[in-house]
């Protein structure tokens, strides 16, 4: 059996959400670079040591920015996969859920970098809701292909 693969007209919005994630990654890169420069943690060192943090509180902020970026990359692949699959059947809903994830990730990056672990909660919650919705829609899309 074969299928004719037709992409919904609204799928362009889904692609726009996917493309917008370039700006999140750039935000992470900029935050990490700014905090690295301020902390004096040299390349290629990925994180400041406990001793460096005790001597220089800005080193902790560098670690927070670095960890926030790592968390983004840990979640990005599953997000974009769910977004692109869900958008095939639910383009409008996927656009909104994906936009929530994007907004939540910006809030997460800024909140975690500047306010530490408690600062990430609001952004995490918003992004989690968006990603959960996308995951459900992606599963339903796959189910309907079977």
TrEMBL record:
SUPFAM superfamilies: MAPEG domain-like. The keyword Nucleus does not apply. InterPro entries: MAPEG, MAPEG-like_dom_sf, Membr-assoc_MAPEG. It is found in: Membrane. It is a multi-pass membrane protein. GO terms for molecular function: glutathione peroxidase activity; glutathione transferase activity. Keywords: Membrane, Transmembrane, Transmembrane helix. The keyword Lyase does not apply. Its main location: membrane. GO terms for cellular component: endoplasmic reticulum; membrane; nuclear envelope. This is Uncharacterized protein. It comes from Xylaria hypoxylon. The lineage of its organism: Eukaryota, Fungi, Dikarya, Ascomycota, Pezizomycotina.
């Amino acid at each position: 059996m074969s299928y004719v693969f037709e992409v919904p007209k609204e799928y362009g919005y889904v692609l726009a959400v996917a493309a917008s994630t370039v700006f999140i990654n750039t935000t992470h890169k900029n935050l990490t670079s700014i905090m690295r420069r301020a902390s004096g943690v040299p390349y290629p060192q990925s994180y400041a040591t406990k001793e460096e943090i005790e001597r220089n509180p800005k080193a902790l902020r560098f670690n927070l920015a670095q960890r926030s970026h790592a968390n983004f990359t840990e979640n990005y692949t599953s997000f974009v996969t769910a977004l692109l699959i869900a958008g095939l059947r639910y383009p409008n809903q996927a656009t909104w859920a994906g936009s929530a994830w994007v907004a939540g990730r910006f809030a997460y990056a800024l909140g975690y970098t500047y306010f530490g672990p408690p600062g990430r909660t609001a952004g995490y919650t918003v992004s989690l809701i968006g990603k959960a919705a996308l995951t459900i829609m992606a599963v339903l899309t796959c189910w309907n292909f079977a």
